[in-house]
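Researcher: Please predict.
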Amino acid sequence: MRFIDITKLKITAGKGGDGVVAFRRELYAAKGGPSGGDGGRGGNIIFIGDSGINTLLDLRKSKEIIAENGKNGGTKNMHGRKGVNTYVRVPLGTIIRDNKTQNILGDIVKDKQAIIIAAGGIGGRGNARFASATNRVPKICEKGMPGQHFEIICELKLLANAGLVGLPNAGKSTLLGAISASTPTVADYPFTTLNPHLGVVRVDKNHNFVMADLPGLIAGASLGKGLGLQFLRHIERCRVLIHMIDISDKTQDHFLNYQLIMNELENYNKDLAKKPHLIVANKIDLPDAAANLKKITAQIKLPIIAISAKKRLNLQVLIKEIANAIKKEQLQRVNDDENEQHIVYEYLKKEEILQIIITKITNIQWTVTGKTIEVIYQKNPLNNYHNILLFKIKLQDLGVYDQLRKQGIKKGDHIKIFDYDMIWEEE
């Protein structure tokens, strides 16, 4: 299957249904009161983590995802049905960003985890909601609000306990194939691994871990050379790094190669170089490997596990060392969480900041725009006298008229608010 780890698409939640103006017309119900129902809320777009999906390929086929609109209200105080939610299943490790602001809208890390990425619009109120002691026969209603709309970027960062890093042809794919059921492509040329592979490694009867074989690094990977950024993105979610070195070639400076990889990790993200990592010397079965191993051990001054992935030498020792490193990292993370005082952030619906923009176009023409005015305009259908009156009252309450007076509006001047034209009548 083709591996897709980043894709862009548009999502639009459902519009809220419109409220309606209606009155009771039953037999023997003289002067029936208002009975216009509310519109239903628009459908949400909800992303769900699915452990059975490994790529974003299905999303690549979808240019746009649209949720169902809420239904309009009806007579006899019948409210419109809510729009059906649209569910989008994505692999674990998917980050959803707003392409315009680059803000993270969601981070899917657990199976069946559900996050509302785009919320449906609120339904408009019917005229039954506006009845009061002073207005028993209201003839006003509201339109439903549009649903949230985003152009999003979905980015997949693999979730694995251990990640294999190293130069191309270090033997990472061979090792993954030898200790798990994964069958990555193996060949004797650079960048055999073009897409990440995951394999489940069995430690014993009750324990296993997930290992990722990722494309090889080269100098300048943190600047985007080779498969650089595509590769480094996935290392961020690995708990432990397995740094593989091809120890067989006597013409290579193995210590320099080790430093190159560590520098690329640090240049991309300083935290990557701080991750727990094991150093593995591969191809120990070849003639010059023993001498090279002795030399690099003295230079690095860190424990090195010598193996042959192809001949399956010392693989059980390596598996136990990786399992111990993962267990140690997990315990450390738990202790850190217990000792650290966490601030709990909650998503709260904040009140909209008033945004009213008054612009003088010509000597007699003005425009009133802004997010606040747009919301009022969207909610109030200007199709009858009562709604127009309510719209004008809301403008007055917001201080729009006072601002126009301060800016020198004169009698007879035209005020354009989106598609609605008004004439100023005060002296």
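Model: The radius of gyration is 32 Å.
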